[in-house]
From TrEMBL:
It comes from the Bacteria. It comes from Actinomycetospora chibensis. InterPro entries: NTF2-like_dom_sf, SnoaL-like. SUPFAM superfamilies: NTF2-like (SSF54427). This is Nuclear transport factor 2 family protein. It holds the Pfam family SnoaL_2. Transmembrane segments: none annotated.
Amino acid sequence: MATVEELMQRNLLGVFNERDAARRHEAIAAVYAEDVLFQDPEGLVRGRDQIDAKVSALLDGAPDFAFRPTALVRVSGDLGVLPWGFGPAGGAPVVTGTDIALVEDGRIVRLHTLLDSGSS
C-alpha cells in the first residue's frame, strides 16, 4: 500500500504532470479512490474521470509548462501537504500553490489545491 508521501508525489508528477493519457489514466487509478473529491479555486469535481478531464484541459492549455514540488511532502497521519510550482520547464513558476490530500485505504479520497496569493 502506498504511503501518503508517495501518493502526494505521484499525484503531482504522475497525474498532474503526465501528458501521456494512458500513463496518466494508470496513475489516476492507483492514486485516487473512485469517488474522489477534488476542489480548487475553480470549483469541485468528483471522480477519477472528472479529474482526468480537468488535468487534460490544464495541460493542453499550457503545453510548455510543468509542475514541480517546491518543498518536501509533510505528513500528519492520513493527511499530506505538498507545495508546488507550475511554469515553463526549466524556468520560474508562474503559479504556486499547495496540495492537501486526505488518504484512506491507500488512496486519495479528498484533494484540495490552494493557490498562493498573487498567483493567477
